[in-house]
Amino acid sequence: GAHRPSTRTSLARLAFERVLDLANENPRRSPVDPQIATVDRSDQPARASRHSSNSIPIASSEGSSREEAMTTMELPKEEMERMMFFEEARIRAEGDHAKDPTNAQTLTRWGGALLELAHFKQGPEAVDMIELAVSKFQAALLINPKKHDALWCLGNALTSQGFLFQEADRAGEYFDQAKSCFQRALDEEPTNDIYKKALEMTDKAPGLHAELQRQLAEQQAQQDAARGVRG
Q: What are the Polar residues biased-composition ranges (predicted)?
């Protein structure tokens, strides 16, 4: 419905992964967590090839179906290692939070790990994990409203949420909120190129969303036609 994101996330996931990559082209400069930031993405050709052009990644209905059906055990080795890394980061942050519930940096690390893990999920599970990440960033900002890395992370999470809505107006609400977060982050640290790039990226989000929905509609039509032929 209008108030729940679409669960057709295979292309949406690729799209918001690309948006996150645009916002953070150099992961080693990620403000989320120095340990998280040192993940080396250079040895992940599958991921790199998805984002090698300026166009939106387009998956065929067959390829998309394979991705939808992919289980954790079928993930490529480097993706499995990446998922395990962020799962460990999540557990570590959760433990640190239990010891010190008012530490905004711990909450930001926790949310960052959840947001990364959401990329390995499908449908409602991905949606719920992004929402949980948002709650951690918001909690961090309640403790420290000027925490620029938490603002940047929240902007990324809101952008991801926007792409999961089919309706342009609903998605636009999230993109606008994300833009506000990126602007606030940049206000706190005006020389941060990542924040500048993220702010520029949000202006492209509505067009990217429209193209994504067109592709999803085409994909659905192809699947419906294939079912009709088989039927």
A: 51-63
